[in-house]
Amino acid sequence: MNVHDSERMAGMLDDLGYETTDIAESADVILLNTCAVREKPEHKLYSELGIFRKLKENNPNLIIGVTGCMAQRDANEIRARVPEVDILLGPRNIHHLPRLVNAHKSTFTDKHGKSTFEPGLDLLSDPTPVTPVKRSSSVSAYVDVIFGCNFKCTYCAVPSARGREVSRNPQEVLDEIRQLNDLGYREITLLGQTVNAYGHDLEKLQDGSRIDFAWLLEAINDINSSLRVRFTSPHPMYFNNRLLDTIAALPSVCEHLHLPLQSGDNDCLRRMKRTYTIEKYRDIIENLRAKIPGVAVTTDVIVGFCGETDAEFANTLKAFEEIRFDLAFMFAYSPRHSTVAGEWPDDVPADVKSTRLNKLIAMQNDISREINHQLAGNVFEVLVESVSDRDDALLFGRTRSNKMILFQGDLETYPVGSLVRVHAREALLRGFQGDAVEIASRPLPRRIMPLNVL
Question: ∠ CA 220-183-245 to the nearest 5 degrees?
Answer without folding.
Answer: 15
